[in-house]
Amino acid sequence: MNPYDLAAYPEAPCALALYGMTAPSMAAAGRALTGELVPSGQMPVSFK
Q1: Residue 38's pLDDT is what?
Q2: How far is Cα 19 from Cα 9, in angstroms, rounded to an integer?
């Protein structure tokens, strides 16, 4: 999900933002969704 799309889902308790549809991004997303990887970080943009 593009980080700018997150503003359209204010009811979502959490989201996983990706910065591309590349194979490494998709692999990392899969690892995060299965619990193999614990995502962390801070968005470089803010939503108000």
Answers
A1: 93
A2: 18
